[in-house]
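Meet our chain:
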Amino acid sequence: MPTASSDPDIRLAVTTRAETFQRLRERLAPHGIAVEHVRPDERVLRVADGDADRDGDHEFRANPGEFDGFDAGWVYPSRLMEGAVVDARLGVPWVNGREAVLASRNKAGTLTRLADAGLPVPRTRLVSNPADDEAVLAAADEVGYPMVVKPNSATRGVGVAKVADPDSLLGVTDYLDLVHDYRATGDKSYLLQEFLPGATDYRVMVLGGGYAGAVERRLPDAALAEGRWKHNVHRGAVAEGVDLGAEPRRLAERAAEELGIPLLGVDVLESDGRLVVSETNARPTVDSAEKYREGFDADLAALVRRTARQ
């Protein structure tokens, strides 16, 4: 096993500069993996140079130096159009590739697969927008009030609302008719989903099919007193490492197994003794080391190495 002082023998391309990048860089270095940033968006990417390409001169087309020499990629870029160019230039396998990212981003598709496999999920309906008010209200009656309305493809709690009655539901859907066009995918569909009051919210990390650690996401007391209910860290919740029980661990593992995704964040809700998978994330944030089981970094490095050998 390489040491921290060894020259790295694997170069891993990471397309985000968020918290995960720095944590991966620090924690994979002792395992001989150099984590380097490749910028996919908010820039100009060279696509082709016309006659130079046809003449076999690939010097400009390949952007020498920027994309060369990588052995694996971390997670396929979230912007799929730019991702296609970066993917072609890198020419490496991804720990979580395009299909994994697309599958997890589609909340309705994921929940359908899990439900059909017998895993517990919240009562959910997918509305292909625009839909007749009568059809939406009939679906809402099946789900039951109060309920959660959420975009099918968004993350971090963006656009999620709780509605308590038909009038408030139609107010939200009217707004969606006017403005809903999620920029990353053009997906205009949304979900009507059962609201689980007082649910405990876990984000479980599954690595290579096995439980790797979990956090419980909690709102501060002041936020609860204000009537807030979303447990997204980006909306003010805190994530604390927990020793998760056997049943929710196994549920998260079964979800990752069904979806076939090597590195997956699985959101598990527990309410009144009931466990459900509410969402999954194939672009999970890698949290601080103490929130994972012992050996997590070594197992993560092993996954990167297996990916590089593909």
